[in-house]
């Protein structure tokens, strides 16, 4: 796993993470491996504890990454996202505090030591109003009410900072509020060394 460059993309809803990775996929580079976001749909978590399911999926993803050699690995939302969302909920909804405390304890005691070590962690930021506008325009996750709640989005940003600090992560921050999809792509390319791979391809 040490031979890989592991890039974790975290950040606010609608900031452009998935669009960036879609563009990477379009380039079809042989040395790039993309792990999509772990989806917590009804079918996936039916009859299971969602947090336990997510942490187990993170462990599975780590095992898969260990099997990869000499690649650039992109992860669309890693463990930090799940922890940040849970923390934000626990701050805004006191009844969620026990859930977050239990998950954080499990992560620190049994999960963290087995996870991949990221080479880069990006935090893709965006202003709350623009985030909501983009998601409404694309009609994405309209039933996920938190993503359309300015109060929640503000707390989510604070919760990310808390989680990064707890895990001694210094993310590279890019604000995409005033950037187009193409501009986001250009901003991320140099920092992840993908530009060199694109030039080789040409």
Elements, N to C (H/E): EHEHHEHHEHHEHH
The secondary-structure class comes to alpha/beta
Output the CATH homologous superfamily: P-loop containing nucleotide triphosphate hydrolases
Approximate strand percentage: 5-15%
Total helical elements: 9
Give structural notes.
With 202 residues, this protein is an alpha/beta fold. The chain has one domain (5-201): P-loop containing nucleotide triphosphate hydrolases (Rossmann fold, 3-Layer(aba) Sandwich), CATH 3.40.50.300. The chain has helices spanning 17-27, 42-45, 50-66, 79-92, 97-111, 128-138, 150-166, 181-192, 194-201; strands spanning 5-11, 32-35, 72-76, 120-125, 172-175. The chain has a 5-stranded parallel beta sheet, with helices on one face. The radius of gyration is 17 Å and the shape is globular. It starts with a strand and ends with a helix.
Could you name the key traits of this structure?
202 residues, alpha/beta, Rossmann fold, 5-stranded parallel sheet, 13% strand
